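Continuing from yesterday's entry. The apo prediction looked reasonable, so today I'm repeating it with adenosine-5'-triphosphate included to see how the binding region is handled. Same sequence as before; SMILES copied from the compound registry.
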Amino acid sequence: MTGRHSAADDPLAPTTYAWAVEASDLSVHAGHSLAVDRLDLRLRNGVHGLLGPNGAGKTTLMRAVATVLRPAAGRLTVLGHDVAHDDLRPVRRRLGYLPQEFGYYRNFTVREFVEYVAWLKELPAGTIPAAVQRAIDRVQLTDRADHRMKTLSGGMLRRAGIAQAIVNDPRILLLDEPTAGLDPDQRLDFRALLRDLGTDSCVLVSTHLVEDVAAACTDVSLIHTGQIVMTGTPKDLAAAGETAPGDPGDSAAERGYSALMRRHREATRP
Ligand SMILES: Nc1ncnc2c1ncn2[C@@H]1O[C@H](COP(=O)(O)OP(=O)(O)OP(=O)(O)O)[C@@H](O)[C@H]1O
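Holo prediction written out below.
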């Protein structure tokens, strides 16, 4: 794996910025829609869940933090760099990103796919084989490492996607629907991996699965029509559910999510 440098020789050392991700009054377009609308968000290390209904703006926010989309207005800094104005290459080397749908050469093996991303992230050549092996092991694809991508199941593909996202030991890890297609055992293993990753990096996970958030996230932000509705801990979500037994959901956290979204819709109804 790549070694961590000291603050003195690393311009992206955490000591040089207060927040790993800081969005202030951020607006971002997706096509012609204003999908992120004057949003404020501040994230440090930890596992941050992003929950919201279809079309809420989760993917668009992720794409902006991944420096794929430019802000239309407001300010977004990632690892202390302003994504609208600064050189983003050092940031991109320190990012890991699992998009909802990711591209790959079908004939690549899992190892070749992850190696290719390691090379794109400019990892020192000598560190690549070990970094690739560790990433593949962490997502439990060890026995498939030399199988072609086209032969993997949907859940295995997702795990290969997670492996490429973590191969550079990223400071910021963006995972868009990472548990889609994983079987129950794999979801449990993945939650443990998330908690591990969040100890020394900033992980933002978009999901529809409230239970994943409750089990693996240090905090959660609810997003609706491009704005953050609420940020709190999974316990806050469950507590909101305890006081709203009539709202839909199979657990206190799910009922809390439903209740908070309902209250937000009622409060903002014209
Ligand atoms: N390429 C596009 N062109 C036009 N509108 C788009 C485009 N991509 C997204 N949108 C719109 O932007 C809004 C936010 O979409 P986004 O994909 O960010 O939401 P999401 O929360 O990730 O949704 P989901 O949970 O369904 O993945 C939606 O209203 C969507 O219709």
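Comparison notes:
- The first helix runs from residue 58 to 65.
- Confidence is low (pLDDT under 50) at residues 1-7.
Will overlay with the apo model tomorrow.
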